[in-house]
Design a protein that fits this description.
By secondary structure, this protein is mostly helical. It is built from 17 helices and no strands. It is globular, with a radius of gyration of 19 Å.
Length: 359
């Protein structure tokens, strides 16, 4: 029997289990320092694989459908932060200040890639544009997110934010491996492609390791004593409101600007997503260890909520009768699209990096 789209995927269940283990058996002392070193190495490997999978054709294609890409970037890095700031007086009483700092961090993250492409394909939208927009968002996030964290998250979240040294660390730990992986793609790209399923375990294992290390440090510092149960329930509501605002905003913008239905679908699914895969490692680099648990908890909840809601929305889009016979795309976008569409088979697999040619 096929799993219901409303049930959590295996990776989400693994995340929940990891948080439970960290809550009951947190790493402390020498073990915590060992996990810190292992986590740093895992993050570097994760972004090395990001770079090795990046398609040069998708980079070129990203500059063509510029109106759509601008809308997606504005939704990701402007609309979300504005929602977080505008709704703060109403939503902050529902959660703790530490959790709302995590909500603001969620708002400045780049878009996810795999699920954005998968939902666009499911809804019969502009897949080539989704490949380009989601990939561009991920690359921009390495630079833009640390800056926005300094400008918005620290100011409105209190303590635990990054310094300029933190931005330097994210460049060293994330961007350098990413660039090296991409430069070596000519020699290792085919090897990575052939082992995509195996390397997916490395990707997801890296995130689970980061989550365990982050929550261990947070639990030792008293995370669960500081977050009452009503605040957790309030956090679910906050995530739902933020997601509703992003979906409604992107849909309205696409229609007011005269985009086709296929482009609207791409804007909605690329502009309303936030990446768990990029967000968790970035939080580990940008924030002090005791703060990371509360920082990533809103992101983990938002991740599952966006999957369930967007699955329903994609099915509604797919049932429409006025599907164009061919999606408008530039030649470069078409060149980048086929393997991306084939790889985007499951929106529930929030993959930290794409299949070799998906970007």
């Amino acid at each position: 029997m096929a799993r219901s789209k409303f049930l959590p995927d295996n990776f989400t269940l693994a995340l929940v289990a990891t948080v439970a283990v960290a809550s009951l058996l947190p790493a402390q002392g020498v073990a915590a320092r060992g996990f810190e070193g292992l986590t740093t190495a895992a993050i570097a490997l994760l972004f090395f694989l990001h770079g090795a999978r990046l398609s040069r054709e998708a980079v070129i294609a990203g500059a063509t459908h510029w109106r759509l890409h601008i809308v997606v970037v504005l939704a990701t890095f402007v609309l979300f932060p504005l929602l977080g700031l505008a709704l703060r007086p109403v939503l902050l009483p529902l959660v703790t200040p530490e959790l709302y700092q995590g909500v603001m961090y969620l708002c400045v993250l780049p878009a996810t890639v795999q699920s954005a492409i998968a939902f666009t394909a499911m809804a019969r939208g502009n897949i080539p544009a989704a490949v380009c927009s989601a990939s561009a968002s991920t690359m921009l996030g390495v630079f833009v997110t640390p800056v926005l964290v300094n400008l918005l998250v620290v100011e409105h979240g209190g303590t635990g934010g990054p310094s300029l040294g933190g931005i330097g660390r994210i460049m060293l730990q994330l961007m350098l491996p990413f660039v090296v992986g991409h430069l070596l793609r000519r020699w290792i790209g085919e090897w990575v492609k052939q082992r995509a399923k195996t390397l997916k375990l490395v990707d997801q294992g890296s995130i689970l390791l980061v989550v365990y290390t982050a929550f261990s440090a947070a639990v030792v510092e008293g995370l669960w004593r500081q977050i009452p149960l009503p605040a957790l329930a309030g956090l679910v509501l906050v995530c739902c409101v933020i997601l509703a605002g992003s979906l409604g905003g992107t849909m309205l913008a696409a229609r007011r600007l005269g985009f086709s239905k296929e482009d609207e679908i791409t804007i909605v699914f690329c502009g309303s997503k936030k990446s768990l895969a990029s967000g968790v490692p970035m939080a580990k680099v940008l924030f002090a260890a005791p703060a990371v648990g509360a920082i990533v908890l809103p992101l983990m909840l938002f991740h599952q909520i966006q999957l369930m809601v967007c699955a329903v929305l994609a099915q509604r889009y797919a049932r429409r009768a006025d599907v164009a016979p061919a999606v408008t795309a530039t030649p470069a976008e078409r060149a980048a699209a086929p393997e991306a569409a084939a790889a985007a088979v499951s929106p529930h697999e929030e993959h930290p990096a794409l299949a070799p040619e998906r970007r």
